[in-house]
Amino acid sequence: MSNNQRQQEAVIPLFSLISSEIIRPLTVSQYMAIDPLLLEYIQQAYIDEKVIYNYIASISSRFNTVAFIAIEKIQQLIDSTGKVTELLSTDAKWFHRLKAIDKIQYTDFGNAEDPHLFFDVKLFNQ
Length: 126
Fold this sequence. Notes:
Helices cover 48% and strands 18% of the residues. The protein is α+β, with helices and mostly antiparallel strands. The N and C termini lie far apart (58 Å). 8% of the residues are buried.
């Protein structure tokens, strides 16, 4: 086996890892931030958290990633594991910290017990 072939065999898993752990979740986050159906739904007067959970669970299943959405209007974070967190609780300190940042998109490490790389993209209405 040539040196070039060994290098390619060593690099291919790295590209696969980058794609599955960085590019795919970032792309999904960016899409969710502009998804017209999601944006329209969360602007309604009544938001059913089951509808949001079904959307998030579908995204999570389809793209093999953990997904979540924090909706300020109802002061809740809903994630694809079924967990609902009140945005005013101490478990959501990160939300207020990142909300204050003057960026639309950012990457963050979170969950000290089980560290994850999070791609957060802000959603805006008109």
